[in-house]
Amino acid sequence: SQTIHQWPATLVQPVGSPLSLECTVEGTSNPNLYWYRQAAGRGLQLLFYSVGIGQISSEVPQNLSASRPQDRQFILSSKKLLLSDSGFYLCAWSVGWSPNTEAFFGQGTRLTVV
Amino acid sequence: AQRVTQPEKLLSVFKGAPVELKCNYSYSGSPELFWYVQYSRQRLQLLLRHISRESIKGFTADLNKGETSFHLKKPFAQEEDSAMYYCALRVQTTDSWGKLQFGAGTQVVVTP
After folding, report:
1. What are the Cα distances from residue A79, in Å, to A56, A65, B7?
2. Assuming Cys at both sites, which of A47, A60, A112, B40 could form a disulfide with A35, CB separation 3.0 to 4.6 Å?
3. Residue B41 to residues A7, A77, A94, B45, B87: CA-CA distances in angstroms?
4. Nearest Cα to Cα of residue A102 among A90, A111, A89, A93
5. Residue A51 contacts B, CB cutoff 8 Å
6. Contact residues for B53 (Cβ-Cβ < 8 A; gap 6+)
7. Which alpha helices (DSSP H) does chain A contain, by range?
8. Pick from B36, B97, B99: which is nearest to A46 by CB?
């Protein structure tokens, strides 16, 4: 069966420090991968999505970047964190896309920038 | 531009009472809509999709293209329905792949 792993679960980082959040999917090939941010009072915002290795689409201009070095690995990074980067980050995957396609989410990472 | 609007941030209902979560969308293409739910300390997960016209855990949602709505309803709320609910719209992208756009979410609290 397919599973998605996301780590770390919680992270406290000082302003200006780098960031690396990792997400891996098991049990499927060539998944579509997503990074979402769940900011307080603002719901889920799509940050990046990827349809294949090295293919990254950015949804909003920001202080973050994403990379997909392997088929089932998706990394969210920042060179210098801002206070506004605090939030709950969710990785998700799906296979193909049709009206019946379901997206599967990781447990999330709670990032607090201090 | 496409948009999903959930006007209620918080919905508090009594057990056994009906509950309706509103969702309106704005999209020029053919809409594909979903409801996702996040129970306390659990992952965000799919609740139902409009294409299936299904009832899950007593919830139903009807796509109304005229009103551009996809409201989620349940006739008798249960305490275990307390959760965060997100309405989502699949938006077609130039690579025909599509992406999910979510509303801001509605927190449902069912009190005994």
Report:
1. 18, 9, 36
2. A47
3. 16, 25, 22, 12, 19
4. A93
5. yes
6. none
7. none
8. B99
